[in-house]
Specification:
The structure is a single chain. By secondary structure, the protein is of the alpha/beta class. The chain contains nine helices and 14 strands. The chain has two domains: 113 residues, HAD superfamily/HAD-like (Rossmann fold); 93 residues, HAD superfamily/HAD-like (Rossmann fold). 34% of the residues lie in helices and 21% in strands. The strands form four sheets. It has a six-stranded parallel β-sheet. Strands 6-7-8-11 form a four-stranded parallel β-sheet, with helices on one face. Helix 8 links the parallel strand 12 and strand 13. Helix 5 packs across helix 6. The chain is globular, with a radius of gyration of 18 Å. The structure holds magnesium ion. The site of magnesium ion has 9 residues, from loops.
Length: 256
């Protein structure tokens, strides 16, 4: 069977196009090349501490020719998901910039339909977690913008939002709906915006557990780049199988 020619690329940001504040060599040119070849582009990231507008400004500052409406993060996916729900009163555990992004969603801190958990830093104290726990026990559903357990900064390791989501899941006996990659919801929102089927899109990323696993679940083809988070043992663990493996995104033009 001849594979469907790709029409769109769903490209990860951090670790794929740039790393530690610098674009990878050839990354800007590769994005321009794909655009010249008339491929549709979407940029998918699990970063939830920033809105698409803030991410757009960051990518422009790095020199990438990317439009704001091409950038999808888990925060955006969550907003779309909440808009599609018949009842969507929310209790938010997110920082103020992200909370402002959800301004069209009704807030209910006492009897919400959803508890939405994102990057909340020091907001995750006993009082806040216990309040969320009680809301879940009263029937609210749990939404996680992403479920990373920890992250690494120049100051050392920090607990990430997934650690608190896991705590709430265990205590309340529930399972969070996760908005970021590898969730199918996230990829579906991106594909719907392009009016493309999974067979017409190719996922590009450095993270086998989010980018490539997500592609696998959707039966999409994928390219794993050996930059950013990539470690060679990830290929042996077979969490997911990329269709292609490239040294970096700058080699993508050799395939398409
Ligand atoms: Mg990445």
């Amino acid at each position: 069977m001849t594979p469907t020619p790709p029409k769109a690329f769903l490209i990860d940001l951090d670790g794929t196009l740039y790393f530690k504040g610098e674009p990878y060599p050839g990354a800007i040119e590769t994005v321009n090349y794909l655009r010249q070849k008339k491929y549709q582009l979407r940029f998918l990231t699990n970063t939830t501490a920033k809105t698409p507008k803030m991410l757009h400004a960051q990518m422009q500052a790095l020199g990438f020719d990317i439009y704001e409406d091409e950038i999808f993060n888990a925060t955006y996916a969550c907003l779309q998901y909440l808009h599609a729900q018949p009842k969507n009163r929310c209790h938010f555990m997110v920082d103020d910039a992200v909370k402002a992004f959800f301004k069209e969603i009704p807030i209910d801190d006492n009897a919400p339909d959803f508890v939405v958990v994102g990057d909340y830093g020091e907001g995750f104290d006993f009082h806040a977690l216990n309040h969320a726990f009680r809301l879940l026990m009263n029937g609210a559903e749990l939404i996680a913008l992403q479920k990373n357990l920890y992250w690494l900064s120049a100051e050392g390791m920090f607990l990430d939002c997934g650690a608190f989501v896991t705590l709430l899941e265990a205590a309340a006996g529930t399972t969070a709906k996760v908005m970021g990659k590898p969730s199918e919801t996230f990829f579906n929102i991106a594909l719907e915006s392009l009016q493309r089927s999974p067979s017409e899109a190719i996922v590009v990323g450095d993270d086998i557990t989010s980018d490539i696993l997500g592609a696998d679940r959707m039966a999409m083809r994928s390219i794993l780049v050996k930059t950013g988070k990539f470690k060679s043992d990830q290929l042996e663990h077979r969490v997911a199988k990329p269709t292609w493996v490239l040294e970096s995104i700058s080699a993508l033009g050799q395939l398409f």
